[in-house]
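User: Study the shape:
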Amino acid sequence: MQQRHFQNVFFFGLLAVAFALVARLFRPYLTPLLFAATLAIIFWPLHRRLRVWLGHGTIAAFVSMLIVLSGVLLPIFALTATAVLEAQQFVIRLQQGGLFDRVLQQLIDLPENFFGKISPSFDPAALNVDEYIGQALRFFISHAAGILSSVAGTFIHIVVFLYGLYYFFKEGDKLPKLFAQLSPLPNHYDAKIIARVRLMVTSVILGALLLAVIQGVLTGVGFLMFGVPGAVLWGMVTVPISFVPWLGTATVIVPAVIYLFVGGHTGTAIGLTLWGVLVVGLIDNLLNPEFIGSRVRINPLLVLVSVLGGLQVFGVVGFVAGPIILSVFLALLEIYQQEFRDKTAGQRPSSSVG
């Protein structure tokens, strides 16, 4: 008996050490792997149809990966490149005194009798281009090793993401079965945990992300319609900001309205205000039930805190990890209520009042 106990202690201790070492090995690549798994869950219905149609799991996984890359990631990269160019143009306008000085002057001229006139002091001719180029070259040379290391690390993360996406498509249906085999819980409880995670990813995370993208697109369209520079840039900025309730899109639209107003474009400023209130502002109330649906009975506050807390604790990967952790916790609470609390309450002797 003692020998058996010692063997169990030794085995589980060795298992814990091995698990800790494996977790340390996988930790640097947790972000690309988790995003790959999330995309695989989101596009799993499409992959399942492709696998039936093509009749070959490997080919279907490769085709599904190409669809995700061409339909999701490449447009994101293209929009990001456009936003970067618009950001550079925005900075150039600020430096050349075109936008910054004009808006600043308009703001100062509003209470002219109180503040008086302040003339722009920026002189583009005073820029020493050669000096800036030399500083840039010196910076690149001094940080060349770090830059090359960062580029190499990014390339490795992309490779891990692509291979992970392909693997999750190819072997994804085996992972829930493996979890059920390793778990000591009854199979119906394992299925509950897996279903809760899948529901959180497909309904809450995907639904919230789609709403944010739609709000970003509508914000960019509004900026383009009413003549605000950098429509793509500010549309992409709106996407992450729109996760904050009530204040999200307003933090982007209100400054644009002020920019139009102080620039003398009162009509377009009013038009953008109406667009932000009637179109962008109401889209969440209209589409939230359609995307997330009534079947997800999770308090929006819990979802918001899980996303924000996940971002703070885990970084970018926390956007997905936070809600998944919340979903597992809620599933375990349901299991506790069904397996322990209800049974314990049923076994208590009923008290009689005489």
